[in-house]
Amino acid sequence: PESPPPPYSRLSPNDEQKPLDLSDSTLSYTETEATNSPNVTPGDFSDASTSPDAMKRSHWCNVAYWEHRTRVGRLYTVYEQSVSIFYDLPQGNGFCLGQLNLENRSETVRRTRSKIGYGILLSKEPDGVWAYNRSEHPIFVNSPTLDIPNCRTLIVRKVMPGYSIKVFDYEKSCLLQHTADLDYTDGPYDPNSVRISFAKGWGPCYSRQFITSCPCWLEILLSNNR
User: Fold this and answer.
1) Of 190, 189, 186, which Cα lies nearest the Cα of 202?
2) Which helix (H) or strand (E) covers residue 220, if one does?
3) Is-contact 181 36, C-beta < 8 A?
4) Of 11, 139, 171, 193, whose Cβ has the fewest other Cβ atoms within 10 Å?
5) Which of 44, 65, 48 lies closest to 57 in space, CA to CA?
6) Phi, psi of 130 (to 5 degrees)
7) Does residue 36 lie within any of the structural domains?
8) Residue 75 falls within a domain, yes or no?
9) Per-residue pLDDT averaged across 211-215, rounded?
10) Helix (H, G, I), strand (E, B), or coil: what is residue 107?
11) What domain range is 77 assigned to?
12) Which of 91, 159, 89 is nearest to 130 (CA)?
């Protein structure tokens, strides 16, 4: 389905993280889905969606995959309301990180890549962008709308397997546009980007101070056309 329902209940407590309902059939990958789709061919997961319907719509984000300081593969452009980013599932629609090749990967990167598994589901909703952890290991998230306003300390959220978190809040982002730019020491500051690391955390509470020290991570570049 093009627009799967959110895998969490709107009636659930107003917690920062919500449990993911893994029984939702819309989150399952099936071989039938892959073979019946005219726009998906085995092994072709490294480029953006090129379906006629998708091309008529503007994209809402681009996804970049990084290993330490090296970007691997091209930007993956997202047109649908949700996108799966996974490693070792050769069926279904989405961004398959396992298909991205890089010579001379370190053993640390290889071990971390093996932990991505089912990966994450990114979903654009009216209130913002949600990330659902479908892997068997935690993910770590940072974005401008998760940081505490006027706080100089980087906030990195740990999201356990089976839970979701709103990684970007549109309303809060509009308010932050009027605040002073923060001075980040690990690179340029983008008020419309989200960083997600697989299995390894970074920041003040971890030995890795910068996300560029993480073996496998994503940069979600959100479009201003919301």
Assistant:
1) 186
2) strand 217-222
3) no
4) 11
5) 48
6) -110, 145
7) no
8) yes
9) 96
10) helix
11) 61-181+188-222
12) 159
